[in-house]
Design goal:
The chain is an alpha/beta fold. It is built from 13 helices and eight strands. It has one domain: Rossmann fold (3-Layer(aba) Sandwich).
């Protein structure tokens, strides 16, 4: 099975280089999905072809936040009813969204064969993309860790709450210890000002410097903005509904920064990077 998957990766027709970023946070309620969607739209405004993978496979909410009507999702891909290209829905500025299911526990407990099926679905993707943003589920489940490990960059969203810092630390500890991830991009979200974001980052860095072999980088401080609540009610992204608001400006800057992050040359430097890492994770699971 693994050899067949590897062969399919080599036959991929994805043009150009694909940047793959996982957006995670450990704790729920830190604004992770908002950061993902707004960053995606901001990147699209900058001329990039962007796809968002809703990797919260059992509690999907990306499509709901944008008020999009979805007829098929990843469960239909896994059942063989359609291809990944068939379930993609288009959001603002042409971003593509791969929607997951909501209220389906089986999607959170994929078997080895189903996980491999998801990998094959990506290997057969024909829609050209420049950036893939993976919006992971909350928590530190195996699926969250798997998607984070498979991505080229891991962006951890934190807010100024003790539980947010604790859960972010636990997530990074597991990724570092068990998966060899040692570089993390930190987004301080819902802070009062840049200084509070820097202080939040300093708190997290102090603990990781003492106990973990990791390198953290503060890549954005996104201020608390009442317009976010208004945008959510409108089922719109804040960069669309209120483009000149403080949070929108911060996310636009984040998008510009993220697009400058280098894409690894090995392996492949394409979306193959993401897929090969998932294949490697699958091989380890099969051997366990």
């Amino acid at each position: 099975m693994i050899e067949d998957q590897a062969s399919s990766l080599r036959r991929m027709n994805q043009p150009g280089l694909t940047k793959v970023i996982a957006i995670t946070g450990g704790k729920g309620g830190v604004g992770k999905t908002n950061i993902t969607l707004n960053t995606a739209i901001a990147m699209a405004k900058l001329g990039k072809r962007v796809m968002v993978l809703d990797a919260d496979l059992g509690l999907a909410n990306v499509d709901v936040m944008l008020g999009l009507r979805v007829s098929k999702n990843l469960s239909h891909v896994l059942s063989g009813e359609c291809t990944l290209d068939d379930v993609l829905v288009e959001g603002p500025h042409g971003i593509k969204i791969a929607p997951a299911t909501s209220g389906t526990q089986s999607m959170t407990e994929l078997t080895a064969a189903e996980h491999a099926g998801l990998i094959r679905a990506f290997s057969e993707l024909r829609t050209p993309i420049d950036v893939l943003l993976v919006d992971t589920a909350a928590g530190i489940s195996g699926m969250v860790l798997s998607f984070a490990k498979a991505s080229q960059d891991v962006m951890v969203v934190v807010c100024n709450e003790p539980t947010s810092l604790t859960d972010a630390y636990a997530l990074m500890k597991l990724l570092n210890r068990d998966y060899g991830v040692f570089r993390f991009k930190i987004v301080a979200n819902m802070v009062r000002n840049v200084r509070e974001g820097q202080e939040l980052f300093a708190k997290l860095s102090k603990v990781t410097n003492r106990f973990l072999d990791v390198a953290l980088e503060l890549v954005a401080t996104v201020p608390y903005d009442e317009n976010i609540r208004l945008a959510v009610r409108k089922q719109k992204a804040i960069v669309e509904a209120f483009p000149n608001s403080p949070a929108s400006i911060a996310v636009m800057n984040l998008a510009k920064t993220a697009l400058k992050w280098p894409i690894p040359n090995q392996p492949g430097g394409h979306l193959e990077f993401f897929l090969e890492q998932l294949v490697n994770k699958q091989a380890i699971s099969d051997q366990a």
